[in-house]
């Protein structure tokens, strides 16, 4: 109880603040981020990657399969159609598997490569960069945008601002129409929306998501990443010293400071300088406005913009690239990154197991479902012929995308009379209610409760599909 608590000396981290960029109008880097354009390998890859997934997002709802929309998540009909697969509320386990697989895929990627989801695939980041692209094309570079915002309103500023916001609204509207098109037939949605014949809820959600996209990508931007996104808060729980993240090599970069291009790299040490020339380009290209030289920060989305900016400066100065790079804490300390480590392997194993379970559930899924409802008003009755009769209501759900004829049979009674439709026709995606009465001689009943099974089987079909459901036959 009286043992002293060990004390560890910790070297305080020196936080370097970027130079003030305040304008006379009061616009500064602390209340508005003017992202500077950057070129480089990572930026090219990010644009290419973003365009691919943006194209997939835009094309999928327009695809057709068997004469209908290939992907249609019809909430009103409680039916999700994904090409040849139709999901119903009864298929909730599939949704659970998909969410679990997505979660562990995110954990695995984050443990290996940090917050790359945010930097390369997140819709918020993708649409933010699209909006910034329109800003650059209409208002000019980051410096021109600062000057434009600082000056008084005139005709040129009014026209440029109007064109920019008009472009933002146009992109937001197309985004909202495409997104809502996943939940309602997209061909009719576009026509009905622009002819003002759209339904209330479809129109409401188009306007709602238009406003959300315009606000998130146009105005809130980094606020979504730094203050509202929960992923930024718990991502650090998945990091370790071997996680690849965007990082600044302090040993190589410090002491930072300006210098002449004529100063050879080999002479830096004698001058007391590191490789960093303190140009602040890494801050100016950052979409969240942080200084990566201050160390790992939760605001960093691992987009790699600062990597490209710094590599460009290093190339012009004749210095080796990689002052800012995707690296691990172990590499920065002079060690080696351990790719295969228990936590990463654990995430991968669980991811493979859950993916296998998802695939197995889809492959073994039977596109037919049977629900049996007993008549609760009368447990049983005796017919004029002296038979014992139970009444049931069968609900036959055709979960496939084809129409089928089905036959209904009973197992568990040696002799019985089944009254009602024993051959039914159910269209694709429909639920058919079939009332049936089952009667048998009381001498066939040895117990008060007899377990029986109703079976429903496809008729005249190349693929035989059978569903067997238990129920009870009551007597006395």
Automatic annotation (TrEMBL):
Keywords: 4Fe-4S, Electron transport, Iron, Iron-sulfur, Membrane, Metal-binding, Transmembrane, Transmembrane helix, Transport
Transmembrane portions of the chain: 45-63, 94-114, 166-186, 198-217, 344-364
Pfam families given in the database record: Fer4_18, Fer4_5, FixG_C
GO MF term list: 4 iron, 4 sulfur cluster binding; metal ion binding
A single cellular component GO annotation: plasma membrane
Annotated ranges, domain 4Fe-4S ferredoxin-type: 267-295
Entry annotated with the keyword Transmembrane helix: yes
Gene3D superfamilies: Alpha-helical ferredoxin, Immunoglobulins
NCBIfam families, per database record: ccoG_rdxA_fixG
Protein name in UniProt: Cytochrome c oxidase accessory protein CcoG
Originating species: Alteromonas sediminis
């Amino acid at each position: 109880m009286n043992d002293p608590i060990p004390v560890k000396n910790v070297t305080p981290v020196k936080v370097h603040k970027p130079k003030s960029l305040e304008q006379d109008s009061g616009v500064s880097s602390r209340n508005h981020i003017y992202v500077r354009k950057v070129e480089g390998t990572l930026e090219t890859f990010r644009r290419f990657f973003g365009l691919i997934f943006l194209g997939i997002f835009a094309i999928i709802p327009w695809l057709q399969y068997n004469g209908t929309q290939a992907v249609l998540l019809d909430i009103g009909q409680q039916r999700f159609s994904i090409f040849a697969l139709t999901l119903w509320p009864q298929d909730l386990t599939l949704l659970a598997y998909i969410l679990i697989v997505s979660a562990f895929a995110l954990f695995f990627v984050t443990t290996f490569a940090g917050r790359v989801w945010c930097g390369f695939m997140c819709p918020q980041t993708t649409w933010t960069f699209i909006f910034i692209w329109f800003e650059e094309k209409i208002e000019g570079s980051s410096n021109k945008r600062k000057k434009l915002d600082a000056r008084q309103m005139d005709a040129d500023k009014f026209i440029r601002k109007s064109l920019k916001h008009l472009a933002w609204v146009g992109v937001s509207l197309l985004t909202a129409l495409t997104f809502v098109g996943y939940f309602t037939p997209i061909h009719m949605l576009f026509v009905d929306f622009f002819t003002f014949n759209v339904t209330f809820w479809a129109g409401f959600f188009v306007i709602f998501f238009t406003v959300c996209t315009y606000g998130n990508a146009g105005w809130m931007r980094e606020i979504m990443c730094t203050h509202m996104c929960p992923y930024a808060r718990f991502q650090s729980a998945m990091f370790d010293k071997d996680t690849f993240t965007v990082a600044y090599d302090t040993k190589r970069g410090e002491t930072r400071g300006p210098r002449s291009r004529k100063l050879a790299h080999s002479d830096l040490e004698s001058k007391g300088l590191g490789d960093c020339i303190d140009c602040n380009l890494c801050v100016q290209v950052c979409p969240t406005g942080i200084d990566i030289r201050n160390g790992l920060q939760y605001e960093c989305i691992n987009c790699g913009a600062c990597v490209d900016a710094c590599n460009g400066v290093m190339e012009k100065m004749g210095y080796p690239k990689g002052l800012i790079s995707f690296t691990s804490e172990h590499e920065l300390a002079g060690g080696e990154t351990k790719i295969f480590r228990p936590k990463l392997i654990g995430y991968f194993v669980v991811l493979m197991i859950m993916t296998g379970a998802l695939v197995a559930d889809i492959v073994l899924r039977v596109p037919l479902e049977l629900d049996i409802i007993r008549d609760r008003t009368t447990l049983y009755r005796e017919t004029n012929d002296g038979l014992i009769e139970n009444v049931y209501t069968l609900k036959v759900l055709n979960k496939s995308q084809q129409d089928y004829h089905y036959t209904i049979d009973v197992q568990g009674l040696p002799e019985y009379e089944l009254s009602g439709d024993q051959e039914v026709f159910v269209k694709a995606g429909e639920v058919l209610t079939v009332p049936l009465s089952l009667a048998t001689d009381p001498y066939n009943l040895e117990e008060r409760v007899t377990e029986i099974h109703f079976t429903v089987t496809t008729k005249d079909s190349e693929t035989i599909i059978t569903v067997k459901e238990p129920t009870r036959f009551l007597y006395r």
